[in-house]
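We treat protein structure as text, and this decision shapes the records that our systems exchange. Such a record has a labelled line for the sequence and another for the backbone structure tokens. The record that follows is passed on verbatim for readers who wish to inspect the format:
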Amino acid sequence: MPPLARRDLRNLVRQLGATARPSQQRKALATIASVPVCGEDRDNLVAIAAAGAIPPLVQLLRGGSSAEVQAIAAAALSNLARHCGNVSGIVAAGAIPLLVQLLGTGSLADVQEFAATALGNLARTEDNQVVIAAAGAIPPLVQLLGSGCRPDVREKAAAALRELAFESPANVVIIAAAGAIPPLVQLLESASPGPTQLHAAATLSYYRR
């Protein structure tokens, strides 16, 4: 993807607003969610955030949005959070409590999947590990490990718990107290090796240190 021009960035952010047509909004969300993270394309992630995309994206996580919009907004924020330069702005805009709410049983699987992915990407700093745990993310993430959840949801929940547990003894204790160990063990035994099993194994490894 070539670098986005300033005018294109302004239009992209404008299309996230409440006055945009739903089709424009969905197209803008999909564009942000699909920006590549490799090479020079990473600059677009920073440019989109600098153009003011984060506050309207966070606003779209709220209950007034459709489930489809919430899911794509969470995916867009997750993609922006893959660049470390955007993480503090996402947290400052109030995304974490809203993402935690979207993990709940009242959300559709797509919403849960992308909310878990976003939280996992945000959890790659020590401060955010604390903030995310304090916001109550761990119990619903543990619930999403259950066999009744969609496989891709279980994978993203396991990945988020892995990030939260990494070099965080306090979160390791909270994760265990939330009942994560039995479903993590079950994930290891339930299928052939894949990303979900690797995340589960990594999280469990913190209990052997």
About this structure: The two ends are 43 Å apart (CA to CA). The mean pLDDT is 93.
